[in-house]
Here is the input.
Amino acid sequence: MRFVTIVGARPQFVKLAPVSAALRAYHQEIIIHTGQHYDVNMSDVFFQELRIPKPDFHLGLGAGSHGEMTGKMTEAIEKMLISIKPDGVIVFGDTNSTLAGALAAVKIHIPVAHVEAGLRSYNKSMPEEINRILTDHISYRLYCPTETARKQAAAEGLVDGVEVSGDVMYDAILMVRNKLAERSRDLLQSLHVNSGEFALATIHRPVNTDDPAALKRIAAAFEQCGMPILFPAHPRARKFAAEYGVVWSRNVTIMDPVGYLDMLALEQSAHRILTDSGGVQKEAFLMQTPCVTLREDTEWPETLEGGWNVLTGNDTARILAALGRSEPVYMSKNPFGDGHAAEKIVKSLNFWSKSDWFSHK
Ligand code: UD1
Ligand code: UDP
Here is the structure.
């Protein structure tokens, strides 16, 4: 069968890597890159490091408001799908590229598989929550990373075509894990930090980056935390920090976004991780590095177990308290699967009927 995979933003390239590798063993894959993320270190580096085949089509649709971006992507993807005529479309996660891909496909009766289905933060002020809910409800197959996600989907009446596959981002980590130790040694040396003696930070959520007061509260926490902080800054954080005149203290090293291998190496060696990223929270858990999440909610509640992750919003005192908390409890069980999520997804895709979903609903 012929499947189109649609990606556009950094975390989706990571999710695509194991799925693309597994998919190509049985099916034809055509990759559409919407262009939502376009800098070399936000896009190309992931294709290189994870050996993802070059996208067949690049739509070049980065930047713009939500409506503009989603609308332009939907229009362009529809045109592509009409000419490619795939049996199905696979979308990943919760970005505007996810929603645009799913919407374009389903309206012209091409069934959609949603990888990373069923996640909920129950915070509808986040665009990702809207993208997830809508994508789940128009998908033919829902591949849930965890049992919690399956239950959440079921609570919304989503049962048919829903499976717990495990988490493809865990698969991705396993694809490169043996490269991390060497990477870490070289990288830490070049950054002049010792393993276990620094914190790693990432922020890109509008609630943190687009509000000057929030950014300043975060900068104050970074200043007072008492350890070096490596901060590979998302373009959004860098842009607003400059615009608002936020001054980072001397213990904070602002860096360009790093590649996937460097990021995992830093996550593994960090004493603490400070983030508002969905993927980084989960990677922190999988790397057994205690995490402080600068949000009031999470779509990955499993990470909160045993104290591995703590939600603090962007409040300076809460961030500092969470950084200083006692060591989390060892977790013997991994809620994110067995590292073979992509294979499970592809085995399930082997039973794919083009008309099933449209005739039943
Ligand atoms: C997007 C996703 C978010 C995801 C994040 C991952 C949506 C609504 N948001 O947020 O769910 O967690 O990606 O990183 O889909 N920019 C660059 N270079 C790039 C990419 C972006 O300079 O390569 C700048 C542009 O000014 C752009 C801004 O960053 O306008 C924001 O990019 P956008 O894709 O709209 O949202 P993100 O904050 O990256
Ligand atoms: N990541 C990376 N380099 C960075 C920051 C993040 O490789 O400088 C990776 C990270 O390891 C994870 C993914 O990007 O695999 C998470 O993406 P992001 O935080 O942008 O989005 P989210 O997961 O919040 O949607």
